[in-house]
Structures are given as C-alpha cells and as structure tokens.
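Weekly structure sync, notes
Attendees: PL, DS, HV (note-taker this week)

Item 1: Two component transcriptional regulator, winged helix family
DS walked through the input record. Source organism listed as Anaeromyxobacter dehalogenans. Sequence as pasted into the shared doc:
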Amino acid sequence: MTGGGPLVLVVEDEAPVRRFLRAALAAHGYRIEEAGTVAEAEQLAPGHNPDVFLLDLGLPDGDGIDLARRLREWTRAPIIVLSARGREEDKVTALDAGADDYLTKPFGVNELLARVRVALRHAQAPPDGPPVVEVGPLRIDLARREITRSGAEVRLTPTEYRVLAMLARNAGKVLTHRQILREVWGPNATEAHYVRVQVAELRKKLEDEPARPRLLMTEPGVGYRLRDRVD
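Item 1 (cont.): predicted structure, written out as tokens:
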C-alpha cells in the first residue's frame, strides 16, 4: 500500500467485508480507515477528511441513509453506498440523500474500483463540472452551449439541452428522476415521464442505436447516467 493515495473511509459492520475491501483497495494504492458503526464513522470522518466514503446502509446503531445526509452537510467527498438492499426505492432514497453511487452486494473488485475512480474524477472537477465534456463521438461545450456528434452540430430544444447539460455536469454519476425534475422543471414537478420523454428524444439525436444506448444509460427505476467514457 502506498502512503499518498486517496483516503477511503469504509463504513461497514461486517468484519469479513471490511477485510475484503481493505485488501482490494490497498492493492491499488488507496489508504483506508474503517468504521463499524455510525458513531465511529462520525468520529473518524471530520478528523481524517476522507477523499471517498464506502457506506453500508444496515449499521448496528443507525441507518446509513441518515449518515449520508449528515455527511453531505459538511463534505463534498463522494459517497458510494454498498448494500445488500437492491430495491429501486432504496437506491433512489440513498441517491436523494446525497450518495453519488450505489453498488448492490455482492459485487466484483473491478466494478468497485471502477466506481471509485469515476467518483474521484467527478469530485476533482470544478463545482459546476468541466466546461467541455467529451464522451465517445459526443462533445458538449457547456460554456458555448454547443453540442456536436462526430464533429456535426446537434440541435436540441431548450429542455433537451437543460437535461443533457445537467447530466454532463455530473458525467459518470447517476441522477435520479427527482433530481432531474427539480433542476429542469422546478421544485414542484412530480411527473417522472417528463424525464423519460426528453431522454428518449436525446437518444434519437445522440446515439448510434437509440434502442441500445451507449452514452445515456438507464438505471432502472432510479434515473439516468451520462457515461464519462466509452470503451
């Protein structure tokens, strides 16, 4: 383990899972602190100021959702939820509480490491995201409000642009239907189909095969993610 890698605070009450995460992260240069309860996490976090949190939801002295909300009050560090709860409503609740990503147990090491890398890249970007986002053939210039695909200009409606710009500012991060609705249509909007319609239109204009998207990805029942890179 190197001494200068990003610091990860693992909040997990199961010792075998902590050992697994410690070994996986340390082998790739991350520094690790561990907490087995909400109380331990709240004691460790302010003094160590982690670069990223890995947070279980089912903790013995409280719910990880509440901990995520309290962490988000003072830190912008990414919070990745690791939980056996795989229901859509659990994912939505965690993301709305301030989590940046959600991995359902069991998961593989490579997927975990990829999610951590994406979260850290996103955290290192300016608060409003980079002025230019490039994903495969898609180029989004937020400063100029220009969208090109393989060099050709793409014309969007004002609403389509607002949805795409929000996803671009958060590239690599899943945004819930509720988050997009509030940002684009206002705090009182509740109709999730507004978002689905706009994303469908965007896919027609941006994807090679709209029915098999490679750029604008769906998290079923939760929301959408603009990939930050295409393999």
